[in-house]
Amino acid sequence: MTSLNTTLGVLEIGILLSGVLFGVVTSQVYIYHKNFPKDSLWLQIGLIDGLWLLELGHTICICHAIYFYTVTNYGHSEALRVAPISLALAVILHGITVIFVQAYFTYRIYRFSHKPYLIPIISIILMFTQLVSITTLSAEAIIVAQTSLSFYLEKWQWLVMTTISLRVAADLTISSSLVYSLYQQRTNAYESTVLIVDQLIRWTIETGVVTSMLGIAIVIAYLTAKENYTWLALFMVLPKVFSNTLLANVNSRAHLRNNQSNFEVSGSSGLILNRSGTLATGLAVTVHTQMETFDDSPGGGNCSVNSTDKYDSV
Fold first, then answer.
1. CA-to-CA distance for 210 and 91, rounded, in angstroms?
2. Domain range 2-259, CATH architecture
């Protein structure tokens, strides 16, 4: 009974929690489409809907896995020694989802950065390495794990640890770079915009800490008790945390807009207009105000001011 509690039991809890978080993802996607129907198609369909489809596929795969263990092989504890093909597919969908989210934030860094774009280049290298390693793990899982899960973990433990370490490194790099870029915008922002930048910095730190700490927790759980499936349960939850991080970031534009009653915002989330007349990056928006422009989106651009003090992003 104890072995089932620490293997099948914790795995089932992780998959149930992952299902709950998929419901949160779905709600956030609905809220996004309701609040921002004028966003560009690449953002609405390519990023948001594409992310939801990846999460749907991942959820179906892990639900099949728990069905495999608890129904198809009910009463056969030896089934825990192997992994169904659905788990292998979940691994690759997991990896693509994480890279999807990291690519979004890397693009934001690129829009903030000045040449030679060192941080975005480092982030791209980390993401590409992750993609290669996660593809290898998934392919090997299809071949080996269906025969012996313990042999698979023993053979590829170094690559599992490398993949998770790369993920944590990418998260920390992206989060720290975004915080630094936002802080630079804060030093040049108008006084009325400083509170908004502070809030963006706080959200960036909070979301970066959550994903990084979860990755570190997986490493610790794996190294200390590989036979305990706590690490695998956390692994099931991780992509949902990444997706909710991105969606919360995109949907936060509505909250920022509500907090700035003197702004009339159309479009998406925003950039900061600093004193030099430059906008930080974001999804293109148009803002009308008598003082300054606020935008926090990934598209961004320059800003022009006319004689009536109307500010428009270009």
1. 20
2. Up-down Bundle (1.20)
Its sign, for the CA torsion 105, 133, 238, 53, is positive
Domain boundaries, the chain: 2-259, 264-313
Please say whether the beta carbons of 231 and 218 come within 8 A.
yes
Q: What is the pLDDT along the chain (314 residues), one digit of tens a residue?
A: 447 788 888 999 999 999 999 999 999 999 999 999 988 888 899 999 999 999 999 999 999 999 998 898 887 877 888 888 898 899 999 999 999 999 988 888 888 776 667 888 998 999 999 999 998 988 888 887 777 888 888 888 889 888 888 888 888 888 888 888 777 776 666 665 666 666 767 777 777 778 888 888 988 888 888 878 888 899 999 999 999 989 988 888 776 666 554 443 333 333 333 433 333 334 433 433 333 333 445 444 333 333 333 333 33
Q: Which amino acid would we find at residue 36?
A: F
CA gap 233, 67 in Å, rounded:
15
First to last CA, the chain: 64
Token duo for residue 232:
């695998």
The CA–CA distances, whole Å, from 88 to 5, 84, 193, 236 equal 23, 7, 47, 12
